[in-house]
Write a structure and sequence with these properties.
The chain is mostly helical. The chain is built from 11 helices and 3 strands. The protein is about 55% helix and about 5% strand.
C-alpha cells in the first residue's frame, strides 16, 4: 500500500509535468472544447488551479458564496479562474503544485486522479501531448476509484467489471468479472465516467460499460 506522503509527492510532480504540456499549446487551443461537457480547455485548467491552491476553508467559503449546488458552483469557479491568461494559469499550477486539498473523507489518490484525468480532458481533444504516467500511479488512482465507489457515471455497471491495464501490468475489480481492457489512462477515464474512456476499452466488460 502506498503511503499518503508518497502520493502527495506524485501529485506535485504530475502538476508540474502537466503545466509543461500545457505551455506547449498554441494560444487558440485554450478556447477549444475539452472532454468535460460545457468546459473549454482553459476552464479545465482553471479547475485544476483552483484545486491546487485550495484549502478546505477556502473551498467552503467559495461554495457558500456561489449560492449554487456543488457541481454548478464548481463550474462557475472553473470558468472564473479559467479566464486568466494561459501563462498565468500554468505558472499558478506550478506554484501550487504542493497544494494538499482533497475533499473530506477522500484519500489523496483522488486528487492524483483529478490531475491525471483532467489533464487528458484538456489535452486529448486538441491533440496535445499527454504526459506519460507511471503504472504505480495509475494503479493507486484506479484502486481508489473502486474502493470508494468514485466511478461517477459508470458506478453500477463497473461493479462487475474487471479493468485490465494492458500497458501497466495491473488489474482492478473482481477476478471473475467481465474484462474491460485498454491503456491505463483509458481505464481511469472509464472509471471516471468519461465516454471516451469506455469507447477506448475492449472486451466484454467494455460492452457492459457502453450498454
Amino acid at each position: 500500500m502506498t503511503d499518503d506522503e508518497t502520493v502527495w509527492n506524485w501529485i506535485a510532480e504530475e502538476r508540474v509535468t502537466l503545466a509543461s504540456a500545457l505551455d506547449a499549446l498554441p494560444p487558440d487551443a485554450w478556447d477549444q472544447p475539452s472532454q468535460c461537457d460545457g468546459w473549454k480547455v482553459r476552464d479545465v485548467v482553471g479547475h485544476l488551479v483552483s484545486l491546487a491552491e485550495a484549502t478546505r476553508w477556502s473551498v467552503t467559503v467559495d461554495l457558500v458564496r456561489q449560492l449554487r449546488l456543488p457541481d454548478e458552483a464548481l463550474s462557475r469557479i472553473a470558468r472564473r479562474e479559467g479566464r486568466a491568461d494561459p501563462a498565468d494559469l500554468t505558472a499558478r499550477l506550478r506554484a501550487a503544485a504542493g497544494g494538499r486539498f482533497v475533499v473530506f473523507t477522500q484519500p489523496p489518490a483522488v486528487s492524483l486522479g483529478e490531475v491525471i484525468v483532467h489533464g487528458v480532458d484538456a489535452l486529448r481533444p486538441i491533440g496535445g501531448d499527454e504526459p506519460t504516467v507511471a503504472p504505480e500511479r495509475t494503479l493507486v488512482v484506479a484502486e481508489a476509484y473502486r474502493n470508494i465507489g468514485f466511478v461517477f457515471g459508470a458506478r453500477r455497471t463497473a461493479r462487475g467489471v474487471r479493468f485490465v491495464a494492458t500497458d501497466a501490468g495491473w488489474a482492478v475489480g473482481p477476478a471473475s468479472g467481465a474484462e474491460a481492457r485498454g491503456a491505463a489512462v483509458d481505464v481511469l477515464l472509464a472509471l471516471a465516467g468519461r465516454t471516451a474512456g469506455r469507447v477506448a476499452l475492449g472486451g466484454p466488460g467494455a460492452d457492459l460499460l457502453l450498454a
